[in-house]
Amino acid sequence: MHKLIWRPLAENDLLAIIEHIWEDSPRAAEQLAQDVRTKAEQLRQHPELYRVGRKRGTREMVVHPNYIVIYRVKPDAVEILRVKHAAQQWPE
Fold first, then answer.
1. Could you say which of 24, 40, 50, 86 has the lowest number of CB atoms within 10 Å?
2. Considering the domain boundaries, does residue 90 fall inside one?
3. Mind listing the pLDDT tens digit for each residue in 7-41?
4. Among candidates 30, 44, 35, 39, which has minimal Cα distance to 79?
5. Would you say residue 91 lies in a domain?
6. What is the CA radius of gyration of the chain?
7. How far is CA 83 from the centre of its chain?
8. Exposure pattern of 8-19 as b/e (b: 16+ CB <10 Å)?
9. Number of domains in the chain
10. CATH no. for residue 20?
């Protein structure tokens, strides 16, 4: 099983998204945070499950119609690189 590593940019992305949603709906913010964490955890066992990313060497997991987790698979780990809203430009 792979280790799961959250890069600081990904943590910051998720926090900013949750804070933004929290202003309108704390319950929806909590649910999204839980969904992202739960699905990311599943990458430990199935890192190749999701589509090849738009940026070379990455993969993309749609965790909600509006949110995408960008990650990289390494021999012993899955690195969560970014969490983006679908409307955001990616790659930058």
1. 24
2. no
3. 999 999 999 999 999 999 999 999 999 999 999 99
4. 44
5. no
6. 13
7. 4
8. eebeebbeebbe
9. 1
10. 3.30.2310.20
* Token pair listed for 17: 């998204």
How confident is the model at residue 57, as a pLDDT? 94
* pTM over the 0.70 mark: yes
Distance separating alpha carbons of residues 66 and 86, to the nearest angstrom: 5
- Ramachandran area for residue 33 (φ above 0: left; ψ -120 to 50: alpha; else beta): alpha
Q: Quick check: 46 and 28 in contact, CB under 8 A?
A: no
What are the Cα distances from residue 21, in Å, to 11, 14, 25, 27?
A: 16, 11, 6, 9
Tens-digit pLDDT profile for residues 69-78: 999 999 999 9
